[in-house]
Write a structure and sequence with these properties.
Blueprint: H1 2-48, H2 54-57, H3 71-102, H4 107-119, H5 124-138, H6 145-170, H7 173-181, H8 186-214, H9 218-222, H10 256-264, H11 269-303
Helix pairs in contact: 1-11, 3-6, 3-8, 3-10, 4-6, 5-6, 6-8, 7-8, 8-11, 10-11
Length: about 300
């Protein structure tokens, strides 16, 4: 009996030792990643902040680094992300709701689930080749803002679908059953009860997908994004009737990552500082998107009555 107790104590001590070792290794791994990220971001800000100015934000690209700006790039990025959000978010959330709440458990649903999950890990250049064949050549949309937005929407769509399904799955079945007990239909239970409780997690997945899309370069270069552009698309709102214009959807475009790639590839050191400044702006845009999503999630959760 005494020997058994001694053996159990040794096993417990050994397990605690391995647990402590794993905790230390995990902490060191996290610190290495965080310190590396902070170092890179600080280096980017140190190089880019002196170049940031109103002239830099409101000027077109130029062969002279001191006159070059990112006006066309950040406007193109905003327009492309608007199209991406409009195309990906409703379709992705609706697909997630259907797969989780309505689709039967059969081989077809299983096949769709496997493909959606796998598509979330497909390299972005594959989406660019798909968009080149489908949107540019088959649908004749050209190298336009619309094509770019739809391309990035394809990239984001699997992430939104998977996140929506996980968020809906996390809602307790008791909420659905309570809604059914009060006479609600399936759609009423989903719209009035399940979605409000899961919208915070869905928004998190949406913003992760959009944050990935805003930094993509390969698929946009594949479909013909310009590396140098010195004009802006037509504004979506005009002074004359019908006041709303969709011609900007067919306009050529460039985006922030492509502008940064163009400057980094040049040998002049001043262009490297321009690229760093553009990187600072891109990080601020991404953080702004995240802040908006966090605010919306907070407001929505605050309105939910438990």
């Amino acid at each position: 009996m005494q020997q058994d107790l001694q053996q159990v104590k040794k096993i417990i001590i050994r397990n605690k030792l391995w647990q402590a070792i794993f905790a230390v290794v995990g902490l060191l791994s996290v610190l290495v990643g965080i310190i590396t990220l902070i170092t890179l971001v600080l280096d980017l800000f140190i190089d880019g902040l002196p170049r940031l100015s109103w002239q830099f934000l409101t000027s077109f690209p130029s062969r002279k680094p001191e006159e070059a700006g990112i006006l066309a790039a950040w406007v193109g990025t905003v327009l492309v992300m608007i199209v991406t959000a409009i195309a990906a978010i409703p379709v992705g959330i609706a697909s997630g709701i259907y797969l989780e709440e309505y689709a039967g458990k059969n081989w077809l649903t299983g096949l769709i689930e496997i493909n959606v999950t796998n598509l979330a890990g497909v390299p972005s250049i594959i989406y660019g080749l798909l968009a080149l064949g489908l949107f540019v050549y088959q649908l004749n949309l050209g190298e336009s803002v619309l094509t770019a937005g739809l391309t990035l929407a394809l990239l984001v769509l699997p992430i939104v679908i998977v996140t929506t399904r996980e968020a809906l799955r996390a809602v307790p079945n008791s909420i659905r059953e309570a809604a059914y007990a009060m006479g609600a239909s399936k759609w009423q239970a989903i719209w009035d009860h399940v979605l409000p409780y899961s919208i915070g997690s869905i928004l998190t997945g949406v913003i992760i997908g959009l944050s990935r899309a805003v930094g993509e370069t390969a698929p946009l270069i594949t479909i013909g994004a310009l590396t140098f552009i010195a004009f802006l698309p037509d504004p979506p709102i005009k002074a004359e009737f019908p006041y709303i214009s969709f011609s900007w959807l067919q306009a050529p475009f460039t985006v922030m990552p492509i502008q940064m790639f163009n400057w980094v590839s040049r040998p002049e050191p001043d262009f490297q500082f321009n690229a760093a400044a553009a990187g600072v702006v891109l990080i601020c845009m991404t953080l702004g998107m995240n802040a908006l999503a966090i605010y919306l999630r907070y407001r929505i959760r605050k309105q939910i009555k438990w």
